[in-house]
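Hi P.,

Sorry for the delay on this. The queue was packed all week, but I finally got your sequence through. Input first:
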Amino acid sequence: MGSIAVCPGSFDPITFGHLDIIKRGAKVFDKIYVVVLNNSSKQPLFTVEERCQLIREVTKDLKNVEVDSFRGLLMDYARSKKANAILRGLRAVSDFEYEMQITSMNRVLDDKIETFFIMTNNQYSFLSSSIVKEVAKYHGNISELVPKVVEESLMKKFSPR
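Then the structure:
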């Protein structure tokens, strides 16, 4: 069996920080499922379908990356794909506490699936989808934060109708 990782997130929208983690993970794992999870505690700007399409567009050159969506427990999804790893990105120490809680719970649910953390590139350590949306909302320059297709989609979302 090859190494299969699941890279979960809300990706609302995908940023260069997310893409950095996905690209680097694609060099390590035989297959990566980038999975848009429906987080009921968040009010997304983009629909799940829109987020999946944006991710497919910006990862189309990564042949071992597949984009999907899922509602439910991450570990159930990982088992359904025969994954042996969860891939997560860390921006700062503040991310670690939250990720440690999630990882600990995931190990209770299935201790055969390991979690791997990749530190994001320093230039993206401040970057979050929330910050990108806030800047885009006021028509600020986000060209260094997200791929062009994402920038265009954000501008459409925030253009006066």
